[in-house]
């Protein structure tokens, strides 16, 4: 039976899962809007169109996220995950409200902070993300039966990517409306979206109590146990490493404000569409995966999809027209979603419940923070070698990493998700 028959029908009968993916959707739209708006503000209003400053946004988020991620995993494995998620979203709501007040010309009370206000919010988001990232997937695993783990990973990724499509597009349209900088309307919209996400998580009945509800081992011992589990599992480590280097080296999206302006000579609205092209590709691929999920040949699909991501990153960097750039970004998102679904399926199926928070935290360091560090790497190489060469170089190095991991771990090619279930 295909996923479209078994998963789409049965998994959406679970009320908690419906509420979860709805909340995840609104949360994603808000976060993507916020980061797209901040990138536009930094590039157009505060940095004299400097690519390095775009990369600095990523580093500002990555540093606190990495520092607090493992502790976030410990908290996720010992305290109710729903309450942690609610607290994180509430903090994001207040941050969006601050950004709105800071960008509203009639009532701004902190405008003198300038770009420092934007980077302060990005830094705070890094801390919040380390806790949300450690809780979201473990919480979903608790409200979904084990036989639906692959389906839940596919549909969770789909809703995330739909949100990622809408966020930057809305930000680009609102920000560039009438060729003026309207960051205040972007941030006001984020406040509403975060409030909706908070409401739908609050309605979930499951508290997300982890298995570790008895005596708690010391924090450092608990964190060490999580690290040992990941680094002793060749399957988990290989899957994480592939995505780590792909997002670390292929950080083309972070350079989109500069690429749209300096290469394509277009404005914020076109930036919004390009920023969302990978997510559109990911949703298209999700529909394919819904009919034909990667199970028996999951390892081969993982390797080929990351290699394809590198190839289309190179072609995007060489693009000179809007539609060519959009098409190649679309394909990077499509193939990236294959690796996302396979990786999350591996993590869900291979990790015991009492370790899920810590393993998710390590995954967040490998994947989430490497996105931001990759953005900094792209900004630095663009400053040193030029914008287009930095994007092409990232794609080439991604392909070389895939070849290296495939050679070092040949068992990955034989991965069958059906056997893990």
What is the element layout, followed by pairings?
Elements: H1 3-10, H2 15-46, H3 51-76, H4 81-103, H5 115-143, H6 149-175, H7 183-202, H8 219-232, H9 234-249, H10 256-263, H11 268-291, H12 298-317, H13 322-350, H14 356-385, H15 387-408, H16 417-420
Helix pairs in contact: 2-5, 2-6, 2-7, 3-5, 3-14, 4-5, 4-7, 5-14, 6-7, 6-11, 6-13, 9-12, 9-13, 9-14, 9-15, 10-11, 11-13, 12-13, 12-15, 14-15
Notes on the protein architecture:
The chain has helices spanning 3-10, 15-46, 51-76, 81-103, 115-143, 149-175, 183-202, 219-232, 234-249, 256-263, 268-291, 298-317, 322-350, 356-385, 387-408, 417-420. It is mainly alpha-helical and 421 residues long. It has a single domain, classed as Up-down Bundle (Growth Hormone, Chain: A), CATH 1.20.1250.20. The protein is globular and about 50 Å long. The chain starts with a helix and ends with a helix.
* Annotated CATH topology: Growth Hormone, Chain: A
**Strand segment tally:** 0
Q: What number is the mean pLDDT?
A: 81
Which architecture does the CATH hierarchy give at level 2? Up-down Bundle
SSE topology string: HHHHHHHHHHHHHHHH
CATH-wise, what's the superfamily? MFS general substrate transporter like domains
Percent of residues in beta strands: under 5%
Give the biggest beta sheet.
Answer: none
Helix coverage percent: over 70%
The CATH top-level class label: Mainly Alpha
Radius of gyration: 20 Å
How large is the count of helical segments? 16
- What would you call the shape? globular
Low-confidence stretches: 1-8
Oligomerization state: single chain
- Distance from first to last alpha carbon: 15 Å
Please state the structural category. Answer: mainly alpha
Q: What's the number of domains? A: 1
């Amino acid at each position: 039976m295909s996923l479209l028959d078994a998963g789409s029908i049965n998994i959406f009968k679970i009320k908690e899962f419906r509420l979860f993916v709805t909340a995840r959707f609104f949360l994603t739209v808000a976060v993507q809007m916020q980061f797209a708006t901040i990138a536009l503000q930094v590039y157009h209003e505060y940095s004299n169109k400097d690519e390095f400053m775009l990369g600095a946004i990523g580093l500002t988020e990555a540093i606190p996220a990495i520092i607090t991620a493992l502790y976030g995993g410990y908290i996720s494995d010992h305290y109710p995950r729903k309450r942690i998620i609610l607290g994180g979203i509430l903090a994001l709501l207040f941050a969006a409200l601050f950004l709105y007040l800071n960008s509203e010309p009639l009532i701004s009370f902190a405008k003198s902070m300038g770009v420092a206000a934007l980077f302060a919010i990005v830094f705070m988001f890094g801390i919040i993300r380390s806790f949300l990232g450690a809780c979201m997937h473990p919480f979903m695993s608790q409200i979904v039966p084990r036989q639906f783990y692959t389906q839940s990973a596919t549909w969770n990724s789909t809703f995330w990517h739909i949100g990622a499509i809408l966020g930057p597009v809305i930000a680009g349209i609102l920000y560039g409306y009438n060729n003026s900088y309207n960051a205040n309307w972007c941030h006001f919209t984020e406040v509403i979206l975060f409030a909706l996400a908070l409401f739908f998580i609050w309605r979930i009945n499951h508290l997300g109590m982890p298995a570790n509800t008895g005596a708690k081992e010391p924090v450092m011992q608990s964190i060490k146990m999580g690290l040992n589990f990941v680094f002793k599992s060749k399957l988990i480590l290989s899957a994480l490493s592939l995505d780590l280097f792909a997002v670390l080296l292929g950080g083309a999206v972070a350079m989109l404000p500069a690429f749209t302006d300096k290469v394509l000579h277009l404005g914020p609205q076109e930036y919004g569409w390009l920023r969302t092209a990978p997510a559109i590709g990911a949703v298209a691929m999700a529909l394919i995966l819904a009919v034909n999920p990667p199970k028996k040949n999951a390892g081969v699909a993982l390797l080929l999809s990351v290699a394809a991501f590198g190839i289309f990153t190179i072609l995007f960097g060489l693009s000179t027209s809007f539609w060519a750039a959009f098409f190649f970004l679309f394909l990077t998102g499509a193939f990236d979603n294959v690796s996302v679904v396979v990786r999350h399926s591996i993590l869900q199926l291979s990790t015991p419940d009492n370790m899920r928070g810590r393993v998710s935290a390590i995954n967040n360091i490998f994947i989430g923070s490497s996105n931001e560090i990759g953005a900094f790497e792209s900004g630095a190489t663009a400053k040193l070698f030029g914008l287009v060469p930095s994007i092409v170089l990232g794609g080439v190095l991604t392909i070389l990493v895939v070849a290296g991991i495939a050679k070092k771990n040949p068992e990955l090619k034989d991965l069958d998700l059906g056997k893990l279930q």
